[in-house]
Amino acid sequence: MKTKFIYFFLTQMIINSCAVGQERQQSYTCIFTDVAIKIDGKQHESIWKSIDPIWFIPNEKEKLKAKSWFKITWNSEYLLFYFWLEDKDIQAQMTNRDDHLWLEEVMEIFIDADSNPKTYYEFEWNALNTILDLYVLNPNLNRDVIRQWWNWDCEGLLSAVSVQGTINNSKDNDKGWFLEVAIPFSEIQSAENIPPKNGDIWRFDLTRREGTEENGTLQKSSWLPPSTHFPMSYGKLIFNK
């Protein structure tokens, strides 16, 4: 009981101190759908049109250079995400599975399916639809000492990107890119139920990296900062059917 209380207290302290002065809902109710979804990066299905977008906020107290939002739904096989990432100059270089995508502009998903913050799944995509997927051990609950299982691949993972602009062409003015993702429940083996049951709760967070550390332009925004490898800041994903 004492351990649970300490965990709750620290979680609230981190989330409240990092919300950048904004009120943030710390749970997301994920609605079930039986609508067939084609993973093509396009928001043409009725379920996507019916879900309100949730906007990211900056990880630091600064004005966002590029806005982003997300939507989530689920069916009997997949947890599904849809993202919009505003970007006036879309850049992406890496093309190999499990390249170090965090060194460039990416969208990141972190999933803790069993509410054990010391282990979770990490997924990343760039605008070329290059994928990085890892299983992470985080014994100290921060990014100081993390171990990543690089040989793990999420079998059956589906994703697609739809670009409004031209990748790697700074001479034109881009609008941004859409990312659509389907993560198979069969690969999230840490979950209590596969697929989830009505009312099941996972923990998760989402982070966008715009710009790069190399050229000093990096800006991170998230659903619940600080996100990334700070699992105590993750919010609740509530499955509703």
From TrEMBL:
One Pfam family from the record: CBM9_1
Carbohydrate-binding domain residues: 39-210
InterPro entries noted in UniProt: Carb-bd_dom_fam9
PANTHER family: CARBOHYDRATE-BINDING DOMAIN-CONTAINING PROTEIN (PTHR35532:SF5), SIMILAR TO POLYHYDROXYALKANOATE DEPOLYMERASE (PTHR35532)
Protein's name according to its UniProt entry: Carbohydrate-binding family 9-like protein
